[in-house]
UniProtKB/TrEMBL annotation:
<dbReference type="InterPro" id="IPR052165">
    <property type="entry name" value="Membrane_assoc_protease"/>
</dbReference>
<feature type="transmembrane region" description="Helical">
    <location>
        <begin position="372"/>
        <end position="393"/>
    </location>
</feature>
<feature type="domain" description="NfeD-like C-terminal">
    <location>
        <begin position="405"/>
        <end position="460"/>
    </location>
</feature>
<feature type="signal peptide">
    <location>
        <begin position="1"/>
        <end position="31"/>
    </location>
</feature>
<feature type="transmembrane region" description="Helical">
    <location>
        <begin position="268"/>
        <end position="287"/>
    </location>
</feature>
<protein>
    <submittedName>
        <fullName>Nodulation protein NfeD</fullName>
    </submittedName>
</protein>
<feature type="compositionally biased region" description="Basic and acidic residues">
    <location>
        <begin position="150"/>
        <end position="166"/>
    </location>
</feature>
<keyword id="KW-0732">Signal</keyword>
<keyword id="KW-0472">Membrane</keyword>
<dbReference type="InterPro" id="IPR056739">
    <property type="entry name" value="NfeD_membrane"/>
</dbReference>
<dbReference type="Pfam" id="PF01957">
    <property type="entry name" value="NfeD"/>
</dbReference>
<dbReference type="InterPro" id="IPR029045">
    <property type="entry name" value="ClpP/crotonase-like_dom_sf"/>
</dbReference>
<dbReference type="Pfam" id="PF25145">
    <property type="entry name" value="NfeD1b_N"/>
</dbReference>
<feature type="region of interest" description="Disordered">
    <location>
        <begin position="133"/>
        <end position="171"/>
    </location>
</feature>
<dbReference type="Pfam" id="PF24961">
    <property type="entry name" value="NfeD_membrane"/>
</dbReference>
<keyword id="KW-0812">Transmembrane</keyword>
<dbReference type="InterPro" id="IPR002810">
    <property type="entry name" value="NfeD-like_C"/>
</dbReference>
């Protein structure tokens, strides 16, 4: 009876070994794909949009299963916001927008981005809302850009006239209706509270995280990214018409920080930087025009001017302000050629300052030009124009040189040895062809005794 036990022992050992191998291989088989983490911190502009669009594309190429977009923004430009939303809606992988850390907000454009995301989450102590269009690029508003109440219905019915029938009022209503329809369409796509989203647009409503979760504006709350990613494990989301099940438990987090391109674009699209670059460009070109041949000021000035104009074309620019700036540039460059003794230059300064004040056509935070910077540019420009005018006046009072007899008696330096009685010499800072009866050596000092057209007759300086 003992022999059968010994006969079956190898079989049991093989079964146990196979079971152990399966158990050991299971964690490797279920290894979670990485999660990419992007960050929007501050006003949404061209640099943020480029960063998010490229970040989502890179995450898809690297095999990430999810993109977490950390958001803390007061709002931003409409064009930049829509670029980000298009990237989210067309992404081949899920995107979770997460308002964090505590005290952060997803206001204005940030609200639209959360509504567009596959998953919307918030940290405790954060808020969302105030999505009223405040000159975010849809078009200029009728006032300073503050929150606008919904149109008054009284008097807008039978035979009545609306309270605000001005063109500005019509534009404001178009903005409001466009924004309300946009956020409602996003809410319906993601199954979120469309009514509250529209009220956030029309009435500038805001919600704390707890209320947003209760009203189904967001999907969940989490204190940090790690907890959020763990909570999403096993969640099913629709991505371009297909169902995706997240496997995020234990997934590595890959934080993608803004690269040099994003930082450079962020600097160029800062209105203050763009204005400074344009100013440096003007000064460089003025110096080059006033002192032809210097080369470096002209090259640097042209580059600065082009970079400044590139930054401005990405921003919501008031074209009247840009026209004033270009007029100021023309006047200040004209000062280098025309004897206006500062009149054109000062007119250019005034035009440049007026253009700078009205240049950026938005009341969004972080997109205005500080008055202190405009004042500094105006003062520096006025000082430079004043110095130029002062030099011009002194030059006007100076005695005229360069007559036929004026060069006689001048002393110069021979530049090379004479050949056939002639050589080149530096006389009064100019290079002349000189002739002498005596042999001339390089470096020798000579004195002008006569002139025959472009040829000067000279004698050695020690010759009596």
């Amino acid at each position: 009876m003992v022999r059968p036990t010994h006969i079956h022992a190898p079989i049991w050992r093989c079964a146990l070994a196979a079971l152990l191998l399966i158990v050991l291989c299971m964690p490797a088989a279920r290894a979670a794909a990485p999660v990419s983490v992007l960050t929007i911190d501050g006003a949404i502009g061209p640099a943020n949009a480029d960063y998010v669009v490229r970040g989502i594309a890179r995450a898809a190429r690297d095999g990430s299963q999810l993109v977490v977009l950390q958001v803390d923004t007061p709002g931003g430009l409409d064009t930049a916001m829509r670029e980000i939303i298009k990237a989210i809606l067309t992404a081949p992988l899920p995107v979770a927008s997460y308002v964090t850390p505590g005290g952060a907000r997803a206001a204005s454009a940030g609200t639209y981005i959360l509504y567009a995301s596959h998953i919307a989450a918030m940290a405790p102590g954060t808020n969302i809302g105030a999505a009223t269009p405040v000159q975010v690029g849809i078009g200029p508003g009728p006032d300073s850009g503050g929150p606008r109440p919904p149109p008054d219905k009284e008097g807008a019915g039978k035979g009545g006239a609306a309270r605000d029938d001005s063109a500005a009022g019509s534009m404001a209503r178009k903005q409001m209706n466009d924004a309300a329809a946009y956020i409602r369409s996003l809410a319906q796509m993601r199954g979120r509270n469309a009514d509250w989203g529209e009220r956030s647009v029309r009435e500038s409503l805001s919600l704390p995280a707890e209320e947003a979760l209760r009203l189904q504006v967001i999907d969940l709350m989490a204190p940090d990214v790690a907890v959020l990613v763990a909570a999403l494990d096993g969640r099913k989301v629709q991505v371009q018409g297909r169902e995706v099940t997240l496997n995020t438990r234990g997934a590595p987090l890959n934080a993608a920080q803004p690269d040099w391109r994003t930082r450079a674009l962020s600097a160029l699209t800062n209105p203050s930087i763009a204005l400074i670059l344009m100013t440096l460009g003007i000064y460089g070109l003025m110096f080059e025009f006033m002192s032809p041949g210097a080369v470096a000021p002209g090259v640097i000035g042209a580059l600065c001017l082009l970079l400044g104009l590139y930054g401005l074309q990405l921003l919501p620019v008031n074209y009247a302000g840009l026209a004033f700036i270009l007029l100021g540039i023309a006047f200040m460059i004209g000062e280098a050629f025309l004897p206006s003794f500062g009149v054109l230059g000062l007119g250019g300064v005034v035009a440049f300052v007026a253009g700078a004040l009205m240049l950026i056509d938005t009341d969004l935070p972080d997109y205005g030009v500080p008055l202190g910077l405009i004042a500094a540019v105006a003062i520096v420009s006025a000082v430079l124009i004043g110095a130029t005018a002062s030099i011009a006046l002194k030059t006007r009072r100076r005695a005229v040189y360069g007559g036929p007899d004026d060069i006689l008696g001048s002393v110069g330096e021979v530049l090379d040895d004479s050949i056939g009685g002639e050589a080149w010499a530096n006389v009064r800072g100019e290079t002349w062809r000189v002739a002498s009866g005596a042999a001339l050596r390089r470096g020798q000092t000579v004195r002008v005794v006569g002139q025959r057209g472009v040829l000067l007759d000279v004698v050695p300086a020690n010759h009596q």
